[in-house]
Design a protein that fits this description.
Layout (H helix, E strand, L loop, with lengths): L2 H17 L13 H17 L4 E7 L3 H7 L5 E6 L3 E2 L3 E3 L8 E10 L9 H4 E11 L10 H6 L4 E6 L12 E6 L2 E7 L7 H12 L7 E3 L7 E2 L5 E6 L3 E7 L8 H5 L8
Parallel strand pairs: 1-10, 3-7, 4-13
Antiparallel strand pairs: 1-2, 5-6, 5-10, 5-11, 6-7, 8-9, 8-12, 12-13
Helix pairs in contact: 1-2
The structure holds 2-oxoadipic acid and magnesium ion.
Length: about 270
């Protein structure tokens, strides 16, 4: 595809996100992952031009549970920004999102630059339980691999719990609860066999990650729909919990943005 066509796909995805109006998967013409990352770069550039500051890096499809759920089987990566940040224990407004889902993650904080082929364990300053909100800009979360890459890997929000010094991260239990009810359960070993492998992969894919970067290693379980008025908590054994509450749906006229939304499971 020509550069102007790639830019046009970025503009469509940007508009889809800004107006909560999904586009059809399969409609982008994207077939090449290299071109898809060029679109992602253009999309993220639009966000930073509006004042978003990049805080980190996220990986996707690092667990079998996620690959199976989404029907894709390749590791992908995207960017997270300060505007996506949700305060631990805070409130989160779903207004303006299309069909949000939430998934439990592990976050790494780099204390040193991590270069491709470098030792991920040596570069990590801290690790924390995390929650990621994903919101595909494609109708019904149906997309091809290049399309989800172009869409900044469905990134929409993230919350990070208390940071701990990195200990043994193998085989830690991961729980996702909605209103105190167990929604998903898994293990940190579901993430490429060990979450540090996700970090090594991030360095390989990103080229070089500077100190201070937050890296989401990818969900250990499948994602679940995130409704309004819900308390969400992820717990990772030994690391603790991270949580937030989603705002209630506003009463009365939902307004045009919400009218355009197609929530999961609605008829
Ligand atoms: C893509 C995002 C994948 C993960 O943790 O695997 C991801 C999607 O599922 O729409 O964030
Ligand atoms: Mg994720």
């Amino acid at each position: 595809m020509r550069a102007t066509d790639l830019e046009a796909v970025a503009a469509r995805l940007d508009e889809a996100a800004r107006h909560a109006r999904p586009i059809a998967g399969g409609s982008t013409g994207l077939t090449d992952t290299g071109e898809a990352y060029a679109v992602q770069e253009a999309l993220v550039a639009r966000m930073t031009a509006r004042g978003d500051r990049i805080t980190g890096f996220k990986l996707g499809f690092t667990s079998l549970a996620k690959m199976r759920q989404m029907g894709v089987s390749d590791l992908i990566h995207g960017r997270i920004t300060d505007r996506m940040r949700i305060a631990d224990g805070g409130r989160y407004d779903l207004g303006g999102l299309i069909h949000p889902r939430v998934e439990p993650e592990i976050a790494f904080l780099l204390g040193d630059t991590l270069r491709p082929g470098g030792d991920p364990a040596a570069a990590v300053a801290a690790v924390a339980p995390a929650l990621e909100v994903i919101d595909s800009r494609y109708d019904g979360f149906v997309f091809s691999l290049p399309e989800v890459i172009a869409d900044n890997t469905s990134a929409a929000g993230y919350a990070v719990g208390p940071w701990s010094a990195p200990g043994d991260l193998a085989g830690l239990g991961v729980l996702l609860e909605l209103d105190g009810r167990l929604a998903q359960a898994g293990s940190t070993s579901a993430i490429l066999g060990h979450p540090l492998r996700a970090l090594a992969a991030a360095a390989r894919l990103a080229g070089e990650l500077p100190a201070g970067t937050v890296i989401l290693a990818g969900a250990a379980t499948a994602a679940v729909p995130l409704p309004p008025g819900t308390h969400v908590r992820a717990t990772v054994a030994t690391l603790g919990s991270v949580q937030f509450g989603t705002e209630e749906e506003p009463a009365g006229d939902p307004g045009p943005r919400r009218a355009d939304r197609t929530p999961e499971g609605s008829s």
